[in-house]
Every structure is written in structure tokens, then in C-alpha cells.
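REVIEWER CHECKLIST
Item 1: Sequence provided? yes
Item 2: Single chain? yes
Item 3: Sequence as submitted:
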Amino acid sequence: MSTVSNIAAIARREATVRVRTRSFIVGTLLLVLGTVAIAMVPVVVQYVEGHVNQKVLVYVSAPGLKADPVPTLQTLLNARPATGDGSSAGVTDPFSVTAVTDLAAARASVVDGQANSVLAVERAPGGDLAFTLYTNDSAGGSSSQLIQQAATAIAVADRLDRLGVAPADQATLFSPPAYAIAWPDPARTEPTQGSAELGSSYLLGFGMTILIFMMIILYGNWVAMSVVEEKSSRVMEVILNAATPFQLLAGKVLGVGTAALVQYLFILAAGAVALLLQGRVADLVLGQDGGVALPEGLTVPLLILFCVYGVLGFLLYAVLYAAAGSLVSRQEDISSAVMPMTLVTMAGYFVAVYSSTGLLDIRSGWIEVLSLIPFFSPFIMLGRVMAGGAAVWEVLASIAILVLSIGAALWLAARVYAAGVLLYGQRPGWRAVWRIVRAHG
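Item 4: Structure as written out by the authors:
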């Protein structure tokens, strides 16, 4: 049989055996259910926010307080963006504010779980209002921060009242000034992105990075495990009589890649259907329009880049995982054999995640250099594209370097694989691996 026929036969067998296993079927089902659950998270969050009410008690002992803080707190804590028709979004106010006259009894009700918090309003010796929040919730939680912001607004209004500023004049003090945001580079003329657009871009780049990372780690380990399974059962010796080590290596990588593609197609299809049905589910659960929209920045060219970097990244690491798997004879030794690739993959993943979420400056020079290195480009370059910091030539250069690196990795892996598949009962070190590569060069 020809080389192509052997590779195709090995790939077909590898893919068929893999997709028929119980672990593949159960794993695919769980991933599909998980994808649907993640897609429905916004509906769940809106449902929880619309049906969970926090009870806030207010104890006022401050003398000379002109305005009742209870209605003010009720308004400020339940303030929400208006929908397109001007109505308030949501079904139920998340906070219920009630005045109390006994602080000790109010604190006891929080201890018993009958209320979420008590806000005590007192007058400090200097004349300003002083607030104390008694709660079991986190001091840095969203509820505590909202109450603190509302208390600040009440304290400012009280100061203005004591200074004799009329209520009509108080409103003008907080009128926003003229404020604009522009690019620091005069050559950039496109509109700046708002926080919502930037957040959506970061989350989109973060999600694509996770998918590529999972693809490489999960399916790369599949390749290594497949090699060790056949090697430990001595089937490898029989297969090598009909196919060369190179054909066996290429067939395994393509076979596992095909099985991976089948699983990912199910996952992506489930996610797409769930997103399309999200609005109708929101109508049924929330009784309102879900307002489903695709994330900002999700375009056809970006999806093409995601597929290109996902496939090329998998091929690069998969051939190395296969070579590493050929060096051991037991399943329990796989983790240590593939550890170098795992560490490199995690390094690229963390840099991509931190830069996509804004913890690292994605426009810094060292990240630009890493995005051209083939072991890191599948993770980092997508984030740079989403942030608008990657030129077209950089994207094309990183793809070209990645393709050339796959050829070099295949050359190296084929030589390690050729000798490694016949090694039994021993774990050669790096010097022995280098000698194997030179001997089969």
C-alpha cells in the first residue's frame, strides 16, 4: 500500500475506535450539556436577580437629618438601566429597605437570617453623617459596595443641606462635564471602544483561548495514550510490519484530530443552538425579551483565524505528544513524558488569558514577540487581533512560522517515534533521545 493509503487507513481506524468508546460518547454528552448550561447563564442570572430580594434595615439616630434616607436608599439601590421603551429592566427590586427603631433587635434579625443587613445612620462629632453596616456578607461584595455608594450620596446631600445649598442647585453640582476618549496614536482614526465592547472582546478572546487550550491538552493526551496502549499490548510490533513509523505517527495524529473535530462540532453546534434559543427561553422564564445578540467583535474572519490556529496548534503539539508517548511503555508514565509540552502550553495559555483580560498589557513588546513564537501564537495572537493590536503581516507571519514549525516538529517526532516505539521497559533521558534523533537522522 502507498504512504497515503497507509496513513488514511491508520487514521480511519484510530478515529473509528475513538468515537465508539464509552468515554468519548459520555464525555461528548457532558461537554454538550455544559456548553448549553454556560450559554444559559445570562438567563439564570437575570432570573436570580429578579427573584431574590435582599432586606436592608435602616436605623437612624442622626439629629437634624432633613431627608428620610429610607426612600433615597430604596431608589439608589434599585436603580437600573432603562430598556428600549423606557421601562425599568427586571421584574422585582433586588433590595427592600425598611426603617427600624431598635438597633439591637435589628442586628439580631440579621443574625437569625430574617434580614440581610442593618445600616445605622448617626451624626459624627464633626457634624457629618456616619454609617455602620452590620452584615454577614463580604465587606467587598457587590451589596456592601452598593450600600456604601448610596450612603455616600446621602452624606453629600446632607452636607449641602447644612451649607444652605438649595435642592435645585444641588442637582447642578453633579451635572457631568464634557468628557471624551481618544486614541494616543494620532494615526488611529477609528472610533474608540466602550467598556461594554472591550469587555465583550476580552471575554471572546478569553473563551477562544480556553477552547484552543482544551483542544491541545485533551486531544494531545489522547494521542500519547493511544501510542502507549498499542505499545504496551505489543500490537505496535505487528503494525510496524505493515506501516512505517512515520505513517503510523501521521495516521494517529490525523485520526485523533478527526475524532476531536467530531466532538467539537457537536459542542459548537450545541452552543450555537443554545444562543439562538436564549431569547425564547428568557421569554418563558422571565416573561420578557431576552435580547440575545452575538458578542461584539465576533466576525467571520475571526472565526476563520480561530479554526486556523486551533488546527495548526493541535498538529504542532500532537506530533510531539505522540513522540513523547512512544518513549514510555506504561500508562502511568504518560504524565511525566508529556510534562514539557504541558508546561509550555500552560505558559502560553496563562499569558494569553492575562493579556486578554487586561492584567497584562497586550500591546507590550514582549507579548508581540511571544505571539510570533509557534508554541505560543495559537493562544496569544487571537487576543491581539481582538484588541486591534496585531497587523495583518504579523498574523500571516505567525501562521507561516507555525506551518514551518509543524514540519520541523514532524521531522523530529518521526525520528524519536521510530526508535521509541520499540523501547520497552525503559525510560530514556534527554541525552538518549538526542542520540536516537541523531542515529535516525
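Item 5: Key structural point noted by reviewer: The CA atoms of residues 326 and 420 lie 5 Å apart.
Item 6: Recommendation: ____
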